[in-house]
Amino acid sequence: MLDKCLSLIFFFCCVLAVPRSVNVGGLFDTDDTIRRTFESSVKRVTQERHKFPDAFLVANSNQVDTDPFNVSQIVCGMMEEGVAAIFGPHNRFTSEHVQSMCDTMEVPHIYGKWEHSQTRGKGINLFPNAETLSMIFDKIITDFEWKVFAILYEGTDSLFRTHRLLERWDTKSIGIFLYPLGTGPSYRKAMRQIKDDEIENILIDCSIDILEKVLRQAQQVGIMSEKNKIIVTSLDLQTIDLEPYQFSGVNFTGVRLIDPEKPLVASIVEMHKHEWNLNYPSQLRVEPALMYDAVQLFARAFNRLKYTIEVKSLPCNGSVSWEHGYSLNNFMRVTEMEGLTGLIKFDTAGFRSDFQLDVVRVTEKGLKNIGVWNSTSNVEWLFESHVNSTNAELSLQNKTFIILIAINPPYGMLKKSASTMSGNDRYEGFCIDIIQELSKMLGFNYTFEVQTDNQYGSKVEKTNKWTGMLGKIIAGEADLAITDLTITAQREEAVDFTMPFMNLGISILYRKPTKTPPSLFSFLSPFSAEVWWYLIGAYIFVSMVLFIIGRMCPAEWNNPYPCIEEPEELENQFTFKNSLWFTIGSIMQQGSEIAPIGLSTRMMAASWWFFCLIMVSSYTANLAAFLTVETVVSPFSNVEELAKKTTIKYGAKYKGSTFKFFEDSNYSTYKEMYQYMKENEADVLPPDNDIGLTKVLREDYAFLMESSSIEYIIERYCNVTQIGGLLDAKGYGIAMKKQSDYRHPLNTAVLKLQQSGMLTELKKKWWTQKHGGGTCREDGGQNQAEELDLDNVGGVFLVLSVGVAASFFYTVFELLWEVGCTSLRENVSFKEELMAELKFIVKCDNSSKPVRKRKGSSNRSGEDSTRGCTPPYGFIPTIRTSSSDDK
Ligand code: GLU
C-alpha cells in the first residue's frame, strides 16, 4: 500500500514539474530539409532539459505554398491555437506577409534567408547581411587584382549581392562585364559569350539549386580551364560535388559560412544525419542550418525570460497582441550563441555581426581553406602561397604541358637524321635539353610546339594584345614558352617568367675588321712613342755624361804621339762629337774606334752597351712580331661610333627585345638609332637572327643582337665578330601564364640546374662542341703584337741610370784623388789645384791638355800628372812640364 502511495506521489511531482508546453510554428515551402532541421532543433531543445528547463517546445510544422491567402489562413490558425514564435517561410512574398501578421500580433518571426533590404524590421533574420556579403567579394577581387572580369548572374538579386563590385567599374582600369545566365536549363549561351570575349576572371552568382548545372556547363564550354579564375558567391558551394573541378587546374574560389570541420557542426550533423539525409557535415546547406540555429536561439531567449510565459490565443479578427513577444524579440537580439553557422550575434540594426566566412579554394585534395574573413577585418590569407606551391608541385607530376619553342640555333633546332622522326624527338638544342632536365626533376610531360613565325611576343598598343609566343601563352594555347626569350619589364607585366637561365646583353655582330695597309713608319711600332722619346733622351744624356766624365777622368788624357816621349800636351778622345758617335755606334751595333780607357768611362760604356743590347734585342723581337701579325682596323669600335657611321647599315631582330630596347631608351644616341631603324624597317630589321647573320656576311651591315647568340655565331662563322661591349644586362627565362602555380617549382628547378653546373655544361655542349662549335677558335686565337712601352723596358733605363751615376761618382773620386796627389807633389794648395782642374774641364772646347811640369824636377822623373790613372797600355807618357810662365 505504501509503495503505491509513494509511486503516486512521485508521479504527481513529476507531472507538476514539467513546464507548460510552448508551441512554436514553422512554415515551410519548397525545401523539406529546412522543416526537418526545424523539427530536429525543437526536439533537441526539449531533450536538453538541463539547459532549457523553462522551454518545453512543441513544433507545429506546416507546409505552405506561395499563395499569401493560404499562408495567412494557416498563420491565423496557429495564432488562434497560440504560438510563441513563427519560423519561416522561405518564399519572399509569403514571408513578408507573415512578417506583417506577426508584427500586428507582436509574435516573434524568425527566419534565415538572403534579403536585399538594407534595414531589418521586427523579424529576426539569421542570414548575413547582403551588404556585408557584397563587401567580402569586393575584398577578394581586390586581393586577387582582377582588372577585367565577368559576372555571370541569375537574376536581379544577384545584382544586389554584387552591387559593391559593380561600383568598382571604371572605364580606364576596371572592366566589368555582366552576363545573365538566362532561364535555363542551358546556360551555355552566356558562357560562350564570355569565352568569345576572352574574359578569364568570372564571378558566378546563382542559387545553389542551379549551381551544379551551371558549373558543369561552364566546364563543357571551356571557361573552367587552367587559364580561368572563378569565384562562386553561393555560401553553399561546399555542398555540391566539386570533384570534376579538382583536377582541371581551374583557379576556383568560394566562401562558406559553415565550417564542416568544427566539432560542434560535426557532432550535430552526426546526431541528425539520418533525419537530415546527410552523409557528411559538408553537405549541410546554410538555410537549414540557420533554421536549426534559429530555434536554438529562440530557446535560449525564452529560457532567459525567467517568469512563466503564457502562450495565448490570438484570433486574427481581434485586436489582441501578445505582451511577451516584444521582450522575446529583444532577448533574441541580445543573446549570443555558437551555432552551426558560427557565432550568432546581432548588431543594433538587427543584422548578424561578428560572424566568420572562410574563403575556400578547390584543390586536388578537395576544398582548402585559404583565407578567413570576419566582419571586422579584411580577408586574412592563410599561407596561400604555401598552399599554391605545394599543390602546384603536386600538380606538375604527370601533367602534360604544351611548350612553345622557336627554331633558332642553338636554342631549338630540327634534328638531322636519316630516319623520319616524330613528336618531341624532332627537336634538339639548348632549350630542349633544359626542358628535358626540368621534366626529369619535376615529373611533367611535355609536347613541343614550334612558333613558326619566330615572333616571341610584343604588345600591339592599339589592341592591347600580345603577339607571338606570349600571345599564345596569354590565350592559354600553350603552357610554357622557352627559347632565347628575353625577360623584359613589359613582358613581365603580361606573363610570368622563371629565374633567368642565361645572362647576356646587347652587342654588335659585324664582319671581321680588315687588314691595315702597311705603314711607312711601321718600323717605329715596336716601341711606344714614350719609349722612343726616352731613348732619344737617354742617348743625349749618356753622350753628355760620357763627355764630362771623359774630361774628368785623368786616365782619358793621353799622349797623342806615343813616339814622343815627352809630349807637350795630352789629348782626350771623348770630345763632345766623339761621345755622341761612341754612343750612337753602340746603339747601331756597329761600335766605333773610340775605346774608353779609364775605369769610370768603361763603367759608363758598359752600362750603355748593356742598355743598347737589351733595347736592340727587344726592338728586333717585337719588330718581328709586328711584321708577322696583321694589324686590323674596324670602321667602328662601339655603338656610338656605329651610330655616327652613315655608310654602315644597322638593325636588330624585328619586334625583338633588342629593338624594343632602342625604342624605350632615353639616351639620345639610342633614340636616333631607333629612328633610323624604324625609318628603314624593311631593310634593316630582319625577322630572325639567321637572316641578320646573312646580311652581316653579305652587306655592309651591323646586326645588333644578344651576346649569347653572337658567341654562338662567332664560334662558327669566322668572318664575323663581336664589336664593342654590352649595352645592357638581362636574361632569358621560361614564360608562363601570369600568376601561374608552376612558377615556383619551375624557379626552384632552374636554380638547381644552375647550382649543379648543368646549365654551364649545356652551354658548353651547344655553343662550343655541337654543330661546328670551335671552327674559328684557331683563327680567333691569333695574337696581336703590341708595342713595348715604358713598363716593359723601364728596367733597362734604370740599369743605365745606375751605371751612369756610378761611373760619375767614381770619376769625381778619381779627379779628387788626382788633384790631391798633384797638390802634394806640386806643393800647391788642394783648392788651387782643384780650381785649376775644374776650370780646364769646363772649358769644353779644348780636347788637349797641356802637360804640367813639376817645379824643380827633371823631365824624366817618371812622376807625371796622370799618376793614379793607369793608362791602358802600360804606357806612361813623358810629361813636358809647362807652366803659364812658359808661354
Ligand atoms: N631575345 C629576343 C627576344 O626575346 C630576340 C632577339 C633580339 O631581339 O635580339 O625578343
- Please give the share of residues in helix: 40-55%
Q: Report the CATH superfamily of the largest domain.
A: Response regulator
Query: What's the level 1 CATH class of the largest domain?
Result: Alpha Beta
Ligands bound to this protein structure: glutamic acid
Q: What class do helices, strands and sheet pairing give? A: alpha/beta
Number of helices: 31
Under CATH, the topology of the largest domain is which? Rossmann fold
Low-confidence stretches: 5-17, 385-390, 854-887
The 3D shape can be described as elongated
Distance between the termini: 189 Å
Give structural notes.
It is found in: Cell membrane; Postsynaptic cell membrane. This is Glutamate receptor ionotropic, kainate 2. Residues 410-475 form the Ionotropic glutamate receptor L-glutamate and glycine-binding domain. The protein has 31 helices and 35 strands. It is α/β, with parallel strands linked by helices. It folds into six domains: 17-127 and 284-348, 3-Layer(aba) Sandwich (Rossmann fold); 130-256 and 355-384, Rossmann fold (3-Layer(aba) Sandwich), CATH 3.40.50; 390-503 and 731-769, Periplasmic binding protein-like II (D-Maltodextrin-Binding Protein, domain 2); 522-628, Orthogonal Bundle (Helix Hairpins), CATH 1.10.287; 633-728, Periplasmic binding protein-like II (D-Maltodextrin-Binding Protein, domain 2, 3-Layer(aba) Sandwich), CATH 3.40.190.10; 795-874. An eight-stranded mixed β-sheet has the order 7-6-8-9-10-13-14-15. Helix 15 crosses helix 27, helix 18 runs antiparallel to helix 20 (599-628) and helix 22 (657-664) crosses helix 23 (668-679). The longest helix is centred in the last third of the chain and has 37 residues, at 790-826. The N and C termini lie far apart (189 Å). Residues 5-17, 385-390 and 854-887 have low confidence and may be disordered. It binds glutamic acid (GLU). Glutamic acid binds at residues 456, 484-486, 652-653, 656-659, 705-706. The site of glutamic acid has 12 residues, from helix 22 and strand 31.
